[in-house]
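Table S2 (continued). Query chain:
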Amino acid sequence: MALAILQWESADSQHYRFTIDIGTNTWYRFKIGRQIIERAGIKWVDGISKVTPFQQKKKLTFLGDSQEEIRIPKNYFDGEHCYIQLLSAKDRNGTSPAVSNVIRVPAGLQHVNTGRFNISSSASIDMQTTAFNPIRNISHEQQYLSQQASIEDILGSLVRAVLPVAINMLTPQAGAGNNTPASGGNISSQQPANMLTGLLGAIMRAVAPAISGLSGQQSVSTAQSQDNRFCAGICADSNTSTEANQFSKPFVFGIDDALLASLAGPLIQQGVQLLPQLINAANQHKLQTLQANNQLMTTLAGDVQRRLMLQQLLQNQQPGAAPNVDPAALAQLIAQLQNAQPAAAPAAAPANVATAHSLMQNNTAYTLSNGVILTFESLKLSAYNGKQLPLLQQADKLLFKLKLNVGQAPKNPLPKAIYTFYFKDPVSRQLLLEKTFKKKDIQANTNVDFEFMKSELLSLPLYKDLEIFAEVRWRTSSGKEYKAIGNTPAVFVQNYFVQQQGNAVSSEKELTDMKVYRSFWNKIWQSPSLGKSKSLWELNVDTRYTVSLSAEHTANGITGTKLAVDAKDKESLTDTTSGKMKAGIELSISELNKLLDGWDGNKPLDDEQLAAIKNTGFAKSNLSEMIYNIKMKGRTYEQGMVWAVPVFKLFEITLGKVDSLTPDGYVNEISSTKVKFPLPVSVRILGIKSNNQ
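Corresponding output:
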């Protein structure tokens, strides 16, 4: 009988492995495409990218066994062309054809090796003395999973990308004429800056139209600009010819420049005049998100407090009697409610202001400046988890330098201004530290120093990405209030920190001794008790197994198995569990450090070096997932179990050691040292079946 049955089995480093069954047909080929269509009630792969030539099967059909394993190179597939279909025939001319169902190969399997799931001769780590902590039970939501970028992340990336260009355009080089570009006369170098201005404006208005302070072209008027003492040089260029604002390439990111110019034309015409306002609006949006989150938590806490007071009031009533309240208890509760009312009541919504780019601050409307960019200066960048970031220490003092970047500095200094610093956790959006400074006689385009003492910084977490906002507010001679906002990422470290993660430097090791490594073994399924109605059981599920790291916990955590089971056949003698399965394990970095004991003569890292590795950035960068189809069968007297055990390799980690700090408190001189640390590279799936109960 002619057949065409295609099943995906596993993957190795170079190939996908499939099982095919073409029955009495002897020739087969595959078609790979990017979508599925339906014709005459049959689903076909479409958008063909690869058609293999007809091949003759190697295995002869014997007693009905016509299955054969086939390997197909991974480079035949990509993220778009990931559908495959089997076609079989009597001969290479396609006589008596048969087609299989279309199978989708997940794009994530391109870099996954699932071919080592059977028991092998891989070496095991030999430990005799190390004791691991008891395992924890956690939910799937508690694991570090990949997350979609938020609007705050997108805006932050845009601001960081455009800020250097904005500063160069806002503050031309000394000695350059009014018509001379900031690049020193090279017109072509100014064109990408103008293009970037238009792109930033178009993207920001597309992804964040509701940003407070971000308005259309009509929001920047001559009267308003003349009122702002920092806008004199910018507004003078508002009528400058735009002939230099042409795109230097016919296509930008694959988009026709004519179409892009028509979209971003009004923004390009405003040029430098709009760019500072866009940057300040983006930073203001991120800061307002933080403040709204803190206000929500305060409101929730107040509601809980009032509810507890009302419950206490009810408890003071005599049961079964008419409502009667002890006057003394009532007076005490009223006094408590009066004292708690200001903190518990929700804050009033900010009042509407006349323009779209005005904000309320202490009942005062502050307008986002369109002529000032506030920046952090003299930042010392160092390599941290593969990124360049300012690294700080909780030293005796820390100095930040801020600059008001303006196009043309006023003749007289700014009489006074209020600066406020906000230290924020970008993940939880929690405000960690806030401090306000009052400064006088501020010169534009000049650094201003702000000092923090060690006692103020002790509450900030170590080895955690932070975002530091600086907000400056000032009043013009006419009484109008303006503000500008700048920000920078930063991380507080101790003596050691992770500079970068290297490659694997050892062979695979497996934790084969379940008695020693019980906290690494995860039982993800167990066969059901059938009773008398069923005589067989079967498991056929697509399993997604997640392996993540934890920097906070000292014990491993396992997630409970979740099953999305297909409907079962009540009349069948087989209890079939088919569908999808999801499980995972969260490996404690502290527990992984214990694996070094006795591995190729290595010793666990000391407390200082381990503290550097126990950071959330390192943990998130080592999250991985595996997809595998698990099949098992058994009889009623056989007990089946499926275990998942991670397999490890030693990786080379480059740690930086702080040798000295700059006078401002930034990490300055660094010496590098390389250590080895075990990390998971694959998962062993163990299907165990007993011979009897």
